Amino acid sequence: MVRVGVDRVFGLALAFAGGCGGSEGTSEGTAGSTSAGTTTASTASSTGMAMTDGSTSGNSATEPTTGATPTTQDPSSMTAEPGDTLDMMTDPGTGGVMMTGSSGGEDATTGEPEPFCGDGEVDPGEGCDDGPANDDTGACTTACQPAACGDGFQQAGEECDDGNAVSEDACVFDCKVNFCGDGFVGPGEACDDPLDLLCTDTCALATCGDGKTQPGEQCDDANADDTDDCLATCLLASCGDGALQAGVEVCDDGDADDTDECTTLCEPPTCEDAIKSGNESDVDCGGSCTACEAGAACVQSKDCASKYCEAGTCALAASCLEIRMAWPMAPSGPYTVDFDGDGPEPEAPVECEMSTDGGGWTLVQRTVWDPAKTAALFTGYADWYAKTVGTPVPGEGYRLAGRLWGGLNVKKRHMLVHRVRKAGDGSSCAPLYYVGSEGTLTIDDSNATLTGLLATVNMVNNTLLSTKDSGPSTNCVNANGGAPWFYSSCCSTCPTFAGSYWAQPHPMASYTASAPDQYAAKQADVCNGDAVMVSQGYSGINDMAYYIR
């Protein structure tokens, strides 16, 4: 195709017309000529000029192959204006020349220009078109779409626009800049949930030591010092946490064991800490503390004031023998017992001898040199049977009610302990122990007998008890101020006796100088060779104690 100006087209057209040598036709828009057997047709349209040249061989005229009617047109009738552009091209159908043109920039073959974004018209597929005013930061973008969050352009009212709906980046889905507290975990944030108690107000996961007390933490002082009031574990310091709080705790071993060297009070155990601590068997008693009262817990009998632990509880034993059986190492001394357990007899103090012949001896009677202290023992049978006289304190007259003697004579063993009186200062020699066996006590409210007793000395001289109003030796008792005993007119063992021996009733015995005791000792041995008080072959006794087991 060849593009030429309009003035040259007209010249070409005239040249073509003149070269035919034919006459000029007058039909509008059509010119034709014939020369040497050739027919030529040219056609012009209102929007341009076209010339078609068809030739035939011989004398036959042939229609153009396009089927168009050959016409001729005066070139002066063409509407092309100077400056317009005409195109010359060969008609593919006829082989002739076609001329097309455009005026004012319009395509002569299509008419109106194609629509485009920016032409100021909202064309199909466009949401807006402000023409030259289109701007990616304005109301209508250069893509002819209304400005919107997510289009990738930051417009009025938007803090950002990264062109996506992801809210975990710097710009969230609603074109707001991601910030701590918006509920979206953005760059640099470990969490972001105002309702999550484990997410701090700085969008960091709550951690112990961050200086902020979070749920699950009792405190948070942002240090690892366990000696202050907030531990490195963010718990308030407390006794038992295993950390020694300066100025507050004496110790802290982190356990709940009050039996070790540090109690749950975070102090060493004491007998006044109001808890069961150290080696105590109960609260502030037992172990190395004072003995526990009845009913308290015990581990062994020595934990109890009664010196008797039964099934882990301090109780009252029925006798010294029961105490000894429960606690083989029980010492001699005062105890409290309950002779009949749950029976009507009240608990009572007793003296127990726990070392001689296996121990377990219960004192039932004591007479002493001082007549004033034994005078109350000079009674009839009814009082002997029913009443306890005095207390079992060394140096004092004492007798347990006779009705209770039989219950203590479980092993049928009897013991007399004599402390002989020295002649010089009246002091006592060391004790002599005389033990008998197989002696059976039978006691009721009218009589008392002791039968079968075997001993190396005459511990008794009769099997029947005599008092000032009963027994075979009533006259002897009354004449000599004798405390109730197993007399036979006279006695080898005399709890108290006067007559021709002493001006006042005193304890005495006839065998201490010659008969060895349980430990093979005699009077001379225990008195270190010192002279003793003697009358008619009887040695005066400062303290005569009678025990049964």
Structure characterization notes:
By secondary structure, the protein is mainly beta. Among the domains are: 1-17 and 71-103, no CATH class; 279-354, no CATH class; 358-548, no CATH class. Helix content is 8%, strand content 19%. The protein has helices at residues 6-19, 320-326, 371-374, 381-386, 405-408, 474-480, 523-526, and strands at residues 2-5, 30-35, 38-45, 48-52, 85-90, 97-102, 309-310, 313-314, 333-337, 348-353, 361-368, 398-399, 414-420, 432-436, 440-443, 448-451, 493-497, 506-509, 534-535, 538-548. The radius of gyration is 70 Å and the shape is rod-shaped. The N and C termini lie far apart (153 Å). Mean pLDDT is 83; it is low at 1-87 and 102-109.
How would you sum up the global shape?
Answer: rod-shaped
Cα-atom radius of gyration: 70 Å
Question: How would you state the average pLDDT, rounded?
Answer: 83
Sketch the major β-sheet: 10 strands, antiparallel
What class do helices, strands and sheet pairing give? mainly beta
Helical percent range? Answer: under 10%
Low-pLDDT regions: 1-87, 102-109
The count of DSSP E runs of length 2 or more, i.e. the number of strands, is 20
Order of helices and strands: EHEEEEEEEHEEEHHEHEEEEHEEHEE
> What is the beta-strand fraction?
15-25%
Number of helices: 7
Distance between the termini: 153 Å
